[in-house]
Design goal:
320 residues; two-stranded antiparallel ribbon
């Protein structure tokens, strides 16, 4: 069995977003319950938490943005930058903890002590821009992790984003960087309105962004084809040394915020495809982090299938 790190720390449930908000603490409770039912934690290596280095965070985000997040949270403010991004007094500290814990998990995988890892944390990150919080995201966790890997000597990092919403923040942070390849398959039209196929990067980074937009109603076959086709083919040239996955599960057929009709089994197959890319080019080094997923049943099932596949013990799950 592969050595897979797992983070299921209940402290991340203390990021309070308010009544009726889709990005709610119950998301993590549902994942933890389903994982316990399947005995997943017992087959994984427990991961610790670590607050992000402030200098690293400010190399990814504008210092004024970092200060604004910290100050707003400390003041007890409820909204930050956009009407959908609500916070509480502990949110900034937990966002720092999420980013730092992802960096620490990447360090364990990069050092060979783990084969892969999955971190179920919140707030999520892929919508966070250089100087803006949006889409439920305060700091861009995966961008911070990719930056830390590059600074640790990893030459080429692949970020795979299969959240139903395009990861605008991640794309924009790396669109001029040829050492970080950003791939996204997502629904369009849909929030945030970015992620067209013609968006391929800028300057030295042109050709290192690959967007595969999908239409509402597209299901398993079209979703998986973007991974087994364009992504896999592009990696024959890019040859990543480390793979990060922005693992949103809101493309699930049950999800209320998306319409891609992707099944639980397809998320297992998507993991298998991306893991094969990591095995072929990156020595199997893969770390995934939770992004979206708002139907509790669908989220828990898909996340469970994802980790089972990372472990190499995936099975066929019942249809939703």
């Amino acid at each position: 069995m592969r050595r897979v790190g797992l983070l299921l720390d209940p402290r991340f449930e203390r990021h309070e977003t308010g009544p009726g908000h889709p990005e709610r603490p119950e998301r993590l409770r549902a994942i933890r319950q389903r994982f316990d039912e399947r005995g997943i934690p017992a087959r994984c290596v427990p991961l610790g938490t670590e607050s992000v280095d402030d200098g690293l965070l400010r190399r990814v985000h504008d210092s004024a943005h970092v200060d604004r997040v910290d100050a707003a949270s400390a003041s007890g403010a409820r909204l930050l930058d956009s009407m959908d991004t609500t916070i509480s007094r502990e949110s900034a500290g937990l966002a720092r903890l999420a980013a730092g814990s992802l960096v620490a998990a990447c360090r364990e995988v990069h050092g060979g002590r783990l084969d892969a890892a999955f971190l179920a944390m919140r707030p999520p990150g892929h919508h966070a821009e250089y100087d803006l919080a949006m889409g439920f995201c305060l700091f861009n966790n995966v961008a911070v992790a990719a930056t830390s890997l590059r600074e640790a000597g990893v030459g080429r990092v692949l970020i795979v984003d299969w959240d139903v919403h395009h990861g605008n923040g991640t794309q924009h942070l790396f669109e001029s960087d040829p050492t970080v390849f950003y791939f996204s398959c997502h629904q369009m039209p849909l929030y945030p309105g970015t992620g067209y196929a013609h968006e391929r990067g800028k300057g030295a980074g042109e050709g290192f962004t690959l967007n595969c937009p999908l239409r509402p109603g597209d299901g398993d076959d079209r979703f998986l084809a973007t991974l087994s086709g364009p992504l896999t083919e592009a990696m024959e040239t890019f040859r990543p040394e480390f793979v990060l996955v922005s693992a949103g599960f809101d493309a699930h057929v049950r999800d209320p915020l998306g319409g891609l009709d992707v099944s639980t089994d397809a998320f297992a197959e998507a993991t298998r495809i991306v893991r094969a890319v990591a095995d072929r080019h990156a020595g199997g080094k893969l770390v995934s982090v939770l992004e979206g997923g708002y139907d509790l049943h669908g989220l828990a099932d898909a996340a469970g299938a994802h980790v089972e596949e990372l472990l190499g013990t995936a099975t066929i799950f019942p249809a939703p």
